[in-house]
Design goal:
Elements lengths: L17 E2 L2 E2 L6 E6 L3 H12 L7 E5 L6 H10 L11 E4 L5 E3 L2 H11 L14
Parallel strand pairs: 1-2, 3-4
Antiparallel strand pairs: 3-5, 5-6
Amino acid sequence: MLQMVLPRTGPAPTLRGRIGAGFSPEPHRYHLYLSAGCPRSHSLTTALSLLGLADSVGTTVLGPPATHAALRRAYEATGHHYDGTLTVPALCDTWSGRVVSNHTPDILEGLARLAGRPDLAPPGEGVR
């Protein structure tokens, strides 16, 4: 049976995994991919600093396309043969190599859990 793979025509999917729900809150387990000049990336960088996580969550600010290889591998590990757009910010699990979330409010909530401060999670949908 011949199977065709059509290019994606819609927006890139939002990945909504969470620290504390399938991903344990372990220090040095997570890595954030960010973009310079992106307000969401800036808010996550600020959160890392304020929560005291700058030394336990790695970060990469993406630049030239050559720096995207690790993020591409994480997206491909998350969705087999992922061919969509690489979106940032993206929180990745270094143990499994997968993207946990590319949804900023969920990432902020996860960072608050990782810091042992769930009271600092942003208001909104709450924990699922």
